[in-house]
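Appendix B. Chain record.
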Amino acid sequence: MNVQASSPLHTARPRGPAATRGRVRALGLTLAVGAAALLAGCSTTPPVATTTPPPATASSGNFFALEGEHQTQEMVLFALGLLDTGYRFGGRNPEAGLDCSGMVAYIVENISGRKLPHNAAQIADRTRPIDVDALRPGDLVFFNTLKRRHSHMGIYIGDGRFVHAPSSRGRVRVERLDNRYFAQRIDGARSLLATN
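Structure tokens predicted for this chain:
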């Protein structure tokens, strides 16, 4: 008696070249479906959580703000650490070079994990205006250097001085607010704190 044939658990498998081709096709189909599923899973990018604040304007009162004064102090130290970094128009990191708004955006992102735009006028629109006389270390100063408001900016470090990335002489450096060139062109100050 053939035990295999009578066993309810055993199913007869077709044999021969046609059966082999059928199994190869089935295996190929299984691999193709699996590969497609794997590729589909890799090709979808999970949504990235962003911490960029919604646009704020002077009229909305919803300004970009750091957590507290400890972060504005970090801004000053970070800015001083970038002295002599090369200038590059559109530059947003020290390795490639920095421009004025790129320097500020780079520092803010590194100390807070949040992003500011890479444009001085847009940063001015999203930050809280203060009087120039009320500047404190870590505040932002803006200048009209290209016959338009807020075309240049820097980080105030105290004692009438600020750090900026100028295109002339091409290095991040410290300047005085009472410097003849900048004193005539200052056109605003902003705070990155909710309140002073």
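Further analysis of this model is presented in Appendix C.
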